[in-house]
Design a protein that fits this description.
about 375 residues, 13 strands, globular, alpha/beta, seven-stranded mixed sheet
């Protein structure tokens, strides 16, 4: 039987591969998958009663989302992100990944190009390839920060968008506001879109501050902002996110979402209403432990500076380590799991092919496993890199 050549060119997700290694090595502590250690607030579960009370909720609802959730989102982005709906629309999606796919399909034709930052979030690169488009990778600097001039130089007549993720997956970098403003202006002047993925907006540390490009005056015509409840509200399996898109993209995106999904799961949308009623204070409280675990990880890793370099990571819950010894990253991951019972993600899945990189995810850790997990990583790297 025939297999799509297009799909053959899409990289295979690495998370299931590492997950299988973990299952085959019981007792492994995972520093791999990017999830929060906590679940939704009680208000999310309580809101399901509202869903169940109305038999009409078992039927299809609006493609763009239920009015109650759209209203909550509008208030949130106005207050917290400075984004108004003067020339924009909200569409609730089944997570931010779906929002990204919606955006790519709405603004491209086969053969078009989308600029992504290197290292990239692998699901973004995969979505671009699935859409039969080309992902153009522009390297970030040594601290994983944007290089706007390099982005501008990479634009061609086939470029349709520039993608930024801040706070960043996989690096943990928080992009500087002036750089995001410059990228947004480049997109405006070139007549292309700025796709801003802000799924980790609440996860910032020290003096880092999150900035939404969609808040810039005049940005509503060319900015697509993506948000998610998966991380901040412990909502990963509920699959709720949203897009803020220019008005002229509303109908194309509705066509795409109606075809693929019809509407996001209504029970999840009602749970999201409850979660957003709990508000940012719920996330801020949970962030206290993640902040402490981040400190533990950085403190311990500083003791092996001769083996790994850890660029600044003031956001999300990731560290992208540069291993100073040239090694096959997937083989290194396999040895860490099989011999030292600790799992990380190899950097090549984020497009980093030139050297050995490892992504450490600490969002799922509790204090009692954080020190043990990072300790195993340290000892594993010491032993393997000395061989």
């Amino acid at each position: 039987m025939y297999d799509s050549l297009r799909m053959q060119s899409v990289q295979s997700p690495i998370i299931p591969v590492v997950g299988e290694l973990i299952r085959n090595n019981p007792g492994t502590i995972s520093l791999g998958q990017g999830v929060a250690y906590y679940g939704p607030p009680p208000q999310a579960v309580e809101a399901i009663e509202t869903f169940l009370a109305d038999p009409e909720n078992h039927k299809y609802k609006l493609v763009q989302g239920i009015p109650e959730l759209l209203e909550s989102i509008e208030q949130k982005i106005d207050k917290e992100n400075g984004i108004s709906l003067n020339g924009s629309r909200i569409i609730v999606t089944a997570g931010a990944n779906m929002g990204f796919v919606n955006a790519v399909l709405a603004i491209t034709d086969p053969g078009d190009e989308i600029i992504i930052q290197l290292p990239y979030y692998f699901n973004h690169e995969m979505a671009i390839v699935i859409a039969d488009c080309k992902a153009v990778c522009v390297p970030t600097d040594d601290n994983y920060q944007l290089q706007p001039e390099a982005i501008a130089e990479a634009i061609t007549d086939r470029t349709r968008a520039v993608v930024t993720i801040s706070p960043n997956n996989p690096t943990g970098a928080v992009y500087r506001e002036p750089d995001l403003r410059q990228v947004n202006e480049i997109c405006r002047s070139e007549g292309i879109y700025h796709i801003s993925d802000e799924a980790y907006e609440y996860f910032t540390y020290d003096d880092a501050r999150h900035f939404s490009p969609g808040s810039i005056d005049g940005a509503d015509e060319h900015t697509i902002s993506l948000f998610s409840l998966s991380k901040a509200y412990g909502f990963a399996s509920w699959r709720i996110g949203w897009m803020v898109i220019p008005e002229h993209l509303f109908m194309p995106v509705r066509k795409i979402q109606d075809t693929i999904l019809i509407c996001p799961p209504v029970i999840s949308q009602w749970a999201a209403v409850g979660a957003m009623n709990a508000g940012r204070s719920y996330c801020r409280q949970k962030l206290e432990m993640t902040t402490e675990i981040r400190r533990i990880c950085l403190d311990v890793l500083s003791g092996i500076a001769d083996l790994v370099n850890v660029p600044p990571a003031n956001g999300a819950f990731y560290l992208l380590l540069r291993v100073r010894k040239q090694s096959d990253p997937m083989e290194l991951v396999r040895q860490l799991i099989e011999r030292h019972k600790v799992a990380v993600i190899p950097g090549m899945t984020f497009g980093m092919q030139d050297k050995c990189y490892l992504r450490v995810a600490y969002g799922a850790l509790h204090k009692d496993t954080a020190a043990e997990g990072i300790g195993r990583l340290i000892e594993g790297l010491k032993q393997i890199c000395s061989e």
